[in-house]
Amino acid sequence: MGTAIKFRNAIALASGKGGVGKTNISVNLAIALRKLNKRVTLFDADMALANAHIVMGVQPTMTLVDVLDHEKSLMDVSTIGPLGVRLISGGSGLVELMNVPSEQRSRLIHSFAELEATCDYIIVDTAAGIEDNVLEFVRACNRIMIIVVGEPAAFIDAYACIKILHQTYGIHNFDVIVNRSRDDTHGIDVFKRFKGIVERFLDANLYHVASIPEDNQLHVSVARCNPITIMNPDAPSARAIITLAASLVKTDDSQTNQTAPYSSHKSETSEPDKSGDRLI
Ligand SMILES: Nc1ncnc2c1ncn2[C@@H]1O[C@H](COP(=O)(O)OP(=O)(O)OP(=O)(O)O)[C@@H](O)[C@H]1O
Ligand SMILES: [Mg+2]
Questions:
Q1: Domain for residue 274, yes or no?
Q2: In the chain, is it the N or the C terminus that has fewer CB atoms within a 10 Å radius of its CB?
């Protein structure tokens, strides 16, 4: 994308490495925020293997392609999922979005603005990898959550992801979720090791926002296409995600009420866009 999309109130989940839990955490974080009465849109920004709808148990009939080709709005192409979470499946339309001709821009800008006005949070589930087309969506968000699991390959890929976001896009602040932790102590230990590596080489700040335990019930929920926060909100993984949602809401609501600047662990992409052209 030569010019950047900008989402407000948006949280990107990224990892570098595949299969570490981005989609399940995205879907369940969206549902957990919804349970707190927040209006939530989940944007599935995985072009090749969009599957948030499967985890959510819904079947979208339209995608971003219909916005670009058939002049639909993002609201038109969204699907309402569990508890009213709105899902937008980017799918292959994201490829076209990268090269959108200028005459389509104002319509898209309008459409994203309309969407943002209808929700408190946009959760962006991204694909594995560190290609431009993945990171363009990550940097479009004002908060970035990096998912790591306690294995070297995950550290290497997550580090590469942070390095590009930091060096290419000047982002300093990253939230970290440790997934598949054995217990809280293990989660903290994994975070500390990862933070140590990143902060040794990069001038980036990492904040541990959650540890999500290894949870057999999550496998069951995936097999049933029924998100764990709905299937069993008391399951260990669900509880951790619900706690994360509550802390996000608590922080964001208190900041909204205080009209104070964002806390230090909000990505600097949360700065208001001074160009006035927030999208594309
Ligand atoms: N906390 C957990 N406990 C147990 N299993 C988990 C946990 N988190 C993820 N998994 C397992 O990992 C699988 C992959 O998760 P998910 O699809 O959310 O990863 P992803 O990062 O989105 O993958 P991709 O990079 O392919 O998009 C899940 O189907 C589930 O079986
Ligand atoms: Mg995924």
A1: no
A2: N
Query: What residues are in contact with ligand 1 under a 6 Å CB criterion?
Result: 15, 18-24, 46, 49, 128, 179-180, 212, 214-215, 218-219, 222, 237
In a domain, 276, yes or no: no
If one compares 58 and 69, the residue with the highest pLDDT of the two is: 58
| Residue span of the structural domain in which 103 resides | 10-257
Find the 50 Cα to ligand 2 centroid distance in Å.
7
Task: Tell me how many domains the chain contains.
Answer: 1
Tens digits of residue pLDDT in 171-227? 999 999 999 999 999 999 999 999 999 999 999 999 999 999 999 999 999 999 999
For residue 51, report the distance from its CA to the centre of ligand 2, in Å.
6
Q: What is the CATH number of the domain that holds 36?
A: 3.40.50.300
Atom of ligand 1 at shortest range from CA of 237: 1
- For a mutational test of ligand 1's pocket, the pick from 17, 23, 134, 145, i.e. the residue with the most ligand atoms closer than 8 A to its C-beta, is 23
- Identify whether 269 is part of a domain: no
- SS3 per-residue string spanning the chain: CCCCCCCCCEEEEECCCCCCCHHHHHHHHHHHHHHCCCCEEEEEECCCCCCHHHHHCCCCCCCHHHHHHHCCCHHHHCEECHHHCEEEECCCHHHHHHCCCHHHHHHHHHHHHHHHHCCCEEEEEECCCCCHHHHHHHHCCCEEEEEECCCHHHHHHHHHHHHHHHHHHCCCEEEEEEEEECCHHHHHHHHHHHHHHHHHHCCCEEEEEEEEECCHHHHHHHHCCCCHHHHCCCCHHHHHHHHHHHHHHHHHHHHHHHCCCCCCCCCHHHCCCCCCCCCC
